């Protein structure tokens, strides 16, 4: 009776998850599916458009989406913890405006401005996190308020766009990391890659990262398991604020300007990238690598449309939707058929 | 031109990055460019940025990657173009700006700018008002319906308008609020103004026709007569504005011409032929007061 | 468990039972927020609350707020139900634009003036126009619902597809123009008055009444709350969770469609690009302000109506206090934070604690 | 009344609670309760459903604030405000409902909050996490892939993981709230071995269960709660079975209902009754191997087997919760098998699922709404039951199953665990099905109520309902079923007809 009960490793999908995927509940991160679709889409692009499969096109994907990458990493943590952060785009804009105004109009040193705006981002995140944690307010509303506030402050500081001519910024903006073969990466892309790497490490290998997953899975259980739900949650928003500010800095390198209308609608794109990357909006499941793939997929869709070059404005929108649909459907199909295979083996 | 590039059939390739399709004006602008390219036999690579600068930049990048002959674009914003224009310059691709200017430190980054001067448009509106107000010394109270906060036309038109009115203390802008360039926005803001200021308002200055049309509806619903009780001044000169003027509800519209296509194609051809171009190609624009509306209406294309 | 603590904090208010019951009513705090906003307006701007009788109807800021909020109220009602089953619909703005575009296109035509007076011309009869636009909207909802339930996509992504493509579709219908509508009978929907009050209000009232009945007099309310509370348990219990969910997405889109009719009728035009822009955010905000949690299960239709009114009052307030446009957002942010904090149990608890401590300190010699 | 055994009096008091009181709204869940846990003893906490056991435990661990009362740990007054604080003080707890994160792997659930780290970078040392987790599970006699998400394992395993986690915390007081409710005998035995080992090491263990034999098997002392008050504390050996039950329920328990030949004859469940449902080769690839099973009118069919033997899986196939991909499943005269629960309910099937928290209750809905939910689903949305009718049905079942609730409008989430289970059961009884599938329906239900429910099921069978009864307790199966089908390794290995005894069933389960 007392012998070890040998239990077969499970070969079937979790019961009750097949065919009812739409019911909120744990599901497998469709990471591999995302990658498959990314590859398939690139191949399709290469077949359709000459010059599409050149290395620089793919590096441009990174260069052009560097800000999004950085912001989406922060957003991933927020969503993994079961929250949402709508303030990221506005915070990016605020960062660029503050940086530009301080550097250009007040002549501050960039080395002072950059830490300052990062601190500003963290502070902003902590402020929202505290409101959410201490007063039990829904993250959606708090961060929406944060979005109004950040965007509004940016307007108040400067309605006009401010060009940055400061030499350090210009030097960083022009700096390229040569990768051989005539292709190169911008500073922003390098920062984005580092952020993704750091995010992956943070999510996978630190107690904080795992606590974020635990809270997203079941807040009550995490609390009873003795995790510091409150402090983790505040830190998650602080992290997102930090990433937004970092994204803002990357954007100043990318555009060499500060403008209150920068990064309009970025919050939604970031959320979409995170969710497309396989993270559950309800929290607890997903990965930073998935988010990275999600950003690349959104960027690739954009690139495909640019390469086509024949779409009118409204067909562009429809094509965006259709590609998004095709991608998401493909992803679901792959996930499902893998589940099916699993139960066969 | 260099031999290595160009379209498959040797035609000139023009990469054009449009802001979006946020207004009728913009739609007319796009249509003009497309048809002019077609007529001029130019291979047009068109990309719509959905009102996002980031999309425009990545479109320009991909034009560079595709090695088009000329790049043209209507900048969403004035600043932020320096890095990508430098890349274009490094790739020896000439750049033409349409509609709006950009703010760059190196003037060689673009060849020419074809477009209107928003500040001047604002001034024109103010001048018309100065000329067409009955003499007297009673105050003229103006409310201003601004465009999207931070957008270049909103900033510049406001600037020009206020600049031209500066020496005339009789003219006071008593309220100013953003109507986001839309009819619904214009109407809603105007409703609030009417309730807050009542019959005090003499003039409405709207940064575009759509907001003016919205404001006209609000004025009518308040039981006042737009065009008479309250003068309405607007900008752009789209068809709707002419209809309103013919109905006697809008006093004047300052044209902002979106039909830049032919001029753009001429410029592209000139660049390909190596001819010099002026730094600034101004578009013909006039002021259409109410009285001239009926005559001009049949010729309007947008 | 965290909840329990909060509940006890709220429970030990040392006030009379009646007052406590009032305070505990879920609609009390949103209603108070709305009242304070209006009262504040009335204080700073004495004319704000004034009502007059003009041209055969009531005229004033309050009527404007109600009229302007009508589309948002409708969409919030739909959104409430979608959120109640743990969904989300961010395509409502695009659906509104589609419905408006379809209606404007079906009316079609240009300004026709005969003998100096404008004549009303339309391509299709008005009833058909309305049905057509609503059908288009419902089809959008069906699409959303099928993506969520059938394909199993996450609601935000499933509806993002239509949010992106929808405006393109609407622009396709309008040809990228702002379609002006000249057909006067159509204006009644969004501009007309019945018994001196805007007709749109009657639409909202009718929808609310129908919903209220459908949720109270049939088992739908029970099913919706069961699905939202525990979708798997509801499914196991035999509730047709899938069809109900699809139905709710359709209803939400239908409401966006009705809102599209109201909006296009009000401004007498269909603007595919700008109509209903950011409506999804406003609608979700309204739902949340009304006390419906985004996690599903519980919902309050009346709360969402109040939420929508709060949002519209905020906007009108900003327009009428006369701040420069670049300050709008900051004012809005401050007001949103204030309204939220007012509704937060924990915040009120903290304030009460501070207050009693302050008083205790003050009463000490 | 108070007697303490010579073995215990000498040991030091580890945790002393005095005068603990807690009200929920107007309901007094706990009144003036004292509890004394000594080091090196296993202390059983007994009481009917809703007696206040879980409430007491949550106050000991800082998960719930007490209205009044004091706590002392090793003679020092403590007042833990959060579970974290209690944990740090050395109080380790397994709560009644599994409180773990289903999305995390088993290993993470075991070690969350105290991961082993790399020395250099302070990052989590995953190989060591895995090794430690495997060791912890092995301590309970379980070998499983600790890297899989917890949600992929059945409740029983999840419960074992929760126990393993609490054992892994270095603690001086261990509290287990119904840890054995979904375990079968071998796991229970493994758990007891570990508990005895910990007792040797001087830990104080508080143990809640509704199984009397388990209480007598491990515990040294027993405290009994009734209606939120402590009614007694004694050395286990000194407390006779009947007296213990009597003090729990406040009256003598009637002799146990048993499935006797007389009973069987009295019921319609003889082999000759008309067929209600039949399975021919019903199964699913990777799930259940093809099963043949006939269920007749008025018959109670028991389904026995070990944990993971596929009983739940089979029940889900029958109810349309999972789709079968082979064989045939006929319900009455229906031409096809149900494809989803809604169809199954329409056909007159009912299934009380095993996982009460995730698939049973809707916590935010009231008792009334939870009870009528399936009946209403069967009627469709238009034929809405009038409020009065709903109330009548709900009140009837609340009385029948003796559901301890403050009122019909109380949210089910506020009920005690056992009472929640009764609500789920009531929901299905209310649909008056032709075939009722019960998957561990008596999980967490107290002795007296369990007896009532068994009697009720037998009565329903006598009235013509067919029942498929799944239970981990062999005695229960033998007592109530007319026929017992046994499963092993996801296939049906045989059937036993009454009269049969526990040994015969066990022998078949073991495969000899
Ligand atoms: N959150 C709550 N809100 C209101 N009442 C509650 C709450 N939690 C528990 N109760 C009530 O307190 C009483 C005691 O419940 P408790 O969970 O302690 O019972 P229990 O002895 O553990 O029962 P079981 O054996 O069924 O688990 C019950 O009447 C229950 O309804
Ligand atoms: N240790 C385990 N690891 C993985 N999966 C398991 C394990 N034990 C059981 N399962 C899964 O559980 C399912 C079969 O168990 P099921 O719950 O149907 O059996 P049961 O006889 O009802 O046991 P229980 O007593 O747990 O209810 C299968 O899907 C099986 O893969
Ligand atoms: Mg309990
Ligand atoms: Mg089972």
UniProtKB/TrEMBL annotation, chain A:
Identify its membrane topology class.
Answer: Multi-pass membrane protein
Where does the source fall among the domains of life?
Answer: Bacteria
Localization recorded for this chain is: Cell inner membrane
Q: Show the InterPro entries listed in the entry.
A: ABC_transp_permease (IPR001851)
Pfam families under this entry? BPD_transp_2 (PF02653)
Keywords (alphabetical) are:
Cell membrane, Membrane, Transmembrane, Transmembrane helix
TM helices/strands, residue ranges:
29-52, 58-79, 86-103, 109-132, 139-157, 177-203, 234-255, 288-307, 313-335
What does the sequence similarity comment in the record state about its family? Belongs to the binding-protein-dependent transport system permease family. AraH/RbsC subfamily.
- Could you identify this protein by its name? Galactofuranose ABC transporter, permease protein YjfF
Species this protein is from = Rhodanobacter terrae
TrEMBL record, chain C:
Record flagged with keyword Nucleus: no
The organism sits in which domain of life? Bacteria
**Major subcellular site:** membrane
A Pfam family that this protein carries is: BPD_transp_2
Q: How does it sit in the membrane?
A: Multi-pass membrane protein
Localization (cell): Cell inner membrane
InterPro entries associated with the record = ABC_transp_permease
TM region(s), chain numbering: 27-45, 65-85, 92-112, 124-149, 156-173, 193-215, 246-263, 275-294, 301-321, 327-347
Q: Which UniProt keywords apply?
A: Cell membrane, Membrane, Transmembrane, Transmembrane helix
Q: Would the keyword Transmembrane helix be found if you checked this record's keyword annotation?
A: yes
In which family does this protein belong, per the annotation?
A: Belongs to the binding-protein-dependent transport system permease family. AraH/RbsC subfamily.
Write down what this protein is called: ABC transporter permease
Organism field? Rhodanobacter terrae
TrEMBL record, chain D:
Q: Which SMART domains match?
A: AAA
Enumerate the Pfam families for this protein. ABC_tran
- Print the keywords alphabetically: ATP-binding, Nucleotide-binding, Repeat, Transport
- Residue intervals passing through the bilayer: none
GO molecular-function term, one example from the UniProt record:
ATP binding
InterPro entries listed in its UniProt record: AAA+_ATPase, ABC_carbohydrate_import_ATPase, ABC_transporter-like_ATP-bd, ABC_transporter-like_CS, P-loop_NTPase
- Give the top-rank taxon of the lineage listed in the UniProt record for this protein: Bacteria
In this protein, which residues make up the domain named ABC transporter? 15-252, 271-512
What is the official name of this protein in its record? Sugar ABC transporter ATP-binding protein
**Organism classification:** Bacteria, Pseudomonadati, Pseudomonadota, Gammaproteobacteria, Lysobacterales
């Amino acid at each position: 009776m007392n012998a070890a009960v040998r239990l077969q490793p499970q070969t079937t999908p979790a019961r009750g998850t097949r065919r009812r995927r739409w019911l909120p509940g744990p599901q497998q991160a469709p990471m591999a599916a995302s990658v498959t679709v990314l590859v398939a889409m690139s191949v399709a692009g290469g077949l359709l458009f000459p010059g599409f499969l050149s290395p620089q096109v793919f590096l441009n994907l990174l260069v052009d989406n560097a800000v999004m990458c950085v912001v989406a990493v922060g957003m991933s943590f927020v969503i993994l913890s079961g929250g949402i952060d709508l303030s990221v785009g506005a915070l990016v804009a605020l960062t660029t405006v503050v940086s530009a105004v301080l550097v250009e109009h007040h002549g501050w040193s960039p080395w002072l401005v950059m830490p300052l705006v990062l601190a500003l981002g963290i502070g902003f995140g902590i402020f929202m996190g505290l409101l959410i944690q201490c007063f039990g307010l829904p993250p959606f509303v708090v961060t929406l308020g944060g979005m109004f506030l950040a965007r509004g402050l940016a307007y108040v500081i400067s309605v006009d766009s401010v060009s940055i001519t400061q030499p350090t910024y210009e030097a960083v903006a022009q700096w390229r990391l040569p990768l051989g073969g005539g292709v190169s990466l911008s500073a922003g892309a390098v920062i984005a890659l580092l952020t993704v790497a750091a995010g992956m490490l943070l999510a996978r290998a630190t107690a904080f990262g795992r606590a974020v997953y635990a809270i997203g899975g079941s807040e009550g259980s995490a609390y009873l398991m003795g995790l510091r739900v409150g402090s983790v949650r505040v830190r998650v928003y602080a992290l997102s604020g930090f990433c937004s500010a970092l994204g803002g800095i990357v954007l100043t390198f990318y555009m060499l300007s500060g403008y209150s209308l920068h990064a309009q609608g970025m919050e939604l794109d970031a959320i979409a990238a995170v969710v497309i990357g396989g993270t559950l909006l309800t929290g607890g499941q997903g990965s930073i690598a998935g988010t990275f793939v999600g950003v690349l997929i959104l960027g690739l869709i954009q690139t495909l449309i640019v390469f086509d070059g024949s779409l009118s404005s409204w067909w562009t929108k429809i094509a965006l939707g259709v590609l998004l649909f095709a991608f998401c459907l493909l992803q679901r199909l792959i996930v499902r058929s893998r589940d099916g295979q699993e139960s066969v083996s | 031109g260099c031999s290595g590039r160009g379209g498959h059939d040797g035609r000139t390739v023009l990469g054009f990055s449009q802001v979006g399709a946020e207004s009728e004006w913009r739609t007319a602008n796009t249509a003009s460019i497309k048809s002019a390219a077609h007529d001029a036999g130019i291979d047009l690579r068109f990309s719509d940025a959905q009102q996002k600068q980031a999309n425009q930049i990545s479109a320009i990048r991909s034009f560079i990657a595709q090695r088009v002959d000329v790049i043209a674009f209507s900048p969403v914003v004035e600043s932020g173009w320096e890095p990508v224009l430098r890349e274009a310059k490094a790739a020896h691709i000439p750049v033409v700006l349409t509609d709006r200017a950009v703010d760059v430190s190196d003037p060689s980054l673009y060849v020419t700018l074809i477009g209107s001067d928003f500040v001047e448009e604002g001034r024109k509106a103010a001048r018309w008002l100065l000329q067409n107000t009955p003499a007297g010394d009673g105050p003229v109270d103006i409310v201003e319906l601004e465009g999207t906060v931070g957008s270049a036309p909103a900033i510049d038109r406001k600037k020009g308008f206020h600049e031209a009115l500066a020496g005339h203390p009789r003219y006071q802008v008593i309220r100013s609020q953003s109507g986001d360039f839309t009819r619904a926005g214009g109407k809603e803001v105007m409703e609030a103004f009417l309730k807050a200021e009542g019959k005090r308002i003499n003039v409405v200055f709207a940064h575009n026709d759509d907001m003016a049309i919205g404001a006209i509806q609000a004025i009518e619903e308040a039981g006042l007569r737009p065009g008479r009780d309250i003068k309405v001044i607007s900008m752009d000169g789209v068809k709707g504005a002419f209809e309103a003027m013919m109905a006697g509800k809008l006093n004047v519209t300052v044209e902002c011409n979106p039909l830049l296509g032919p001029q753009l194609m001429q410029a592209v051809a000139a660049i390909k032929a190596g001819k010099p171009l002026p730094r600034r190609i101004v578009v013909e624009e006039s002021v259409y007061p109410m009285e001239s509306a009926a005559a001009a209406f049949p010729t309007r294309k947008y | 468990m965290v909840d329990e603590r909060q509940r006890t904090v709220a429970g030990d208010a040392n006030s009379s039972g009646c007052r406590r019951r009032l305070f505990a009513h879920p609609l009390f705090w949103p209603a108070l927020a709305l009242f304070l906003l209006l009262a504040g307006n009335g204080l700073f701007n004495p004319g704000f609350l004034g009502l007059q009788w003009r041209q055969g109807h009531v005229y004033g800021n309050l009527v404007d707020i109600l009229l302007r909020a009508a589309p948002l109220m409708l969409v919030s009602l739909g959104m409430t139900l979608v959120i109640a089953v743990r969904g989300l619909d961010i395509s409502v703005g695009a659906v509104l634009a589609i419905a408006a575009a379809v209606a404007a296109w079906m009316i079609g035509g240009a300004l026709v003036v005969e003998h100096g007076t404008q004549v009303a011309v339309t391509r299709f009869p008005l009833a058909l126009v309305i049905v057509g636009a609503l059908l288009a909207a419902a089809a959008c909802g069906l699409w959303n619902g099928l993506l969520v339930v059938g394909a199993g996509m996450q609601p935000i992504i499933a509806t993002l597809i239509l949010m992106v493509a929808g405006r393109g579709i609407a622009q396709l219908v309008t040809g990228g123009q702002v379609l002006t509508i000249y057909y006067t009978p159509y204006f009644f929907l969004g501009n007309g008055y019945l018994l001196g009050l805007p007709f749109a209000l009657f639409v909202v009232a009718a929808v609310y009444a129908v919903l209220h009945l459908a949720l109270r007099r049939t088992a739908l309310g029970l099913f919706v709350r069961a699905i939202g509370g525990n979708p798997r348990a509801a499914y196991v219990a035999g509730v047709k969770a899938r069809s109900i969910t699809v139905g709710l997405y359709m209803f939400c889109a239908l409401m966006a469609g009705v809102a599209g009719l109201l909006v296009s009728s009000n401004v007498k035009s269909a603007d595919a690009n700008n109509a209903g822009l950011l409506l999804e955010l406003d609608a979700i905000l309204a739902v949340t302000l009304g006390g419906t949690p985004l996690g599903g299960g519980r919902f309050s239709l009346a709360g969402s109506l109040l939420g929508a009114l709060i949002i519209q009052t905020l906007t009108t307030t900003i327009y009428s206090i006369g701040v420069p446009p670049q300050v709008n957002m900051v004012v809005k942010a401050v007001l949103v934070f204030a309204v939220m904090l007012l509704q937060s149990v924990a915040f009120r608890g903290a304030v009460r604690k501070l207050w009693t401590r302050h008083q205790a300190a003050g009463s000490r010699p | 009344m108070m007697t303490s055994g010579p073995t215990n009096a000498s040991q030091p008091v580890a945790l002393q609670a005095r005068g603990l009181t807690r009200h929920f709204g107007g309901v007094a869940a706990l009144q003036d309760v004292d509890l004394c846990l000594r080091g090196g003893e296993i202390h059983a906490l007994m009481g009917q459903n809703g007696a206040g056991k879980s409430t007491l435990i949550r106050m000991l661990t800082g998960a719930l604030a007490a209205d009044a009362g004091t706590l002392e740990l090793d003679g020092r007054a403590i007042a833990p405000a959060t579970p974290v604080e209690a944990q740090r003080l050395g109080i380790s707890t397994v709560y009644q409902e599994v409180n773990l994160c289903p999305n995390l792997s088993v290993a993470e659930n075991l070690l969350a909050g105290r991961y082993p780290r790399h020395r250099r970078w302070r990052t989590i040392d995953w190989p060591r996490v895995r090794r430690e987790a495997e060791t912890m599970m092995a301590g309970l006699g379980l070998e499983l892939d600790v890297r899989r998400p917890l949600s992929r394992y059945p409740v029983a395993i999840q419960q074992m993981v929760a126990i393993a986690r609490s054992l892994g915390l270095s603690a001086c007081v261990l509290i287990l709230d119904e840890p054995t409710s979904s375990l079968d005998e071998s796991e229970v035995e493994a758990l007891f071995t570990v508990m005895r080992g910990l007792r040797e090491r001087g830990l104080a263990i508080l143990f809640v269960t509704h199984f009397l034999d388990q209480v007598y098997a491990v515990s040294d002392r027993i405290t009994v709660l009734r209606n939120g008050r402590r009614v007694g504390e004694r050395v286990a050996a000194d407390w006779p079975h009947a007296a213990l039950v009597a003090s729990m329920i406040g009256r003598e328990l009637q002799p146990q209902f048993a499935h006797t030949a007389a009973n069987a004859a009295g019921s319609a469940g003889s082999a000759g009754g008309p067929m209600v449902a039949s399975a021919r080769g019903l199964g699913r690839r990777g799930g259940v191997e093809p099963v043949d099973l006939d269920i007749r009118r008025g018959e109670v069919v028991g389904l026995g087997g070990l944990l993971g033997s596929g009983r739940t899986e089979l029940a889900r196939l029958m109810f349309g919760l999972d789709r079968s991909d082979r064989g045939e499943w006929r319900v009455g005269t229906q031409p096809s098998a149900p494809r989803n629960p809604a169809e199954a309910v329409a056909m007159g099937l009912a299934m009380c699922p095993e996982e009460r928290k995730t698939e049973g209750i809707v916590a935010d809905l009231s008792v009334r709404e939870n009870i009528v939910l399936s009946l209403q689903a069967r009627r469709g949305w238009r034929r809405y039951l009038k409020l009065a009718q709903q109330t009548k049905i709900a009140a009837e079942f609340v009385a029948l199953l003796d559901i301890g609730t403050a009122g019909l409008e109380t949210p089910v989430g506020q009920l005690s665990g056992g009472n929640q289970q009764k609500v789920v059961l009531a929901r299905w009884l209310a649909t008056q099905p032709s075939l009722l599938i019960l998957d561990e329906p008596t999980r967490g239900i107290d002795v007296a109520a369990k007896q009532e429910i068994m009697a009720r099921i037998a009565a329903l069978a006598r009235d013509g309902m067919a029942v498929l009864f799944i239970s981990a307790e062999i005695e229960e199966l033998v007592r109530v079923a007319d026929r017992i089908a046994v499963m092993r390794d996801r296939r049906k290995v045989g059937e036993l007809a009454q009269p049969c005894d526990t040994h015969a069933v066990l022998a078949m389960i073991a495969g000899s």
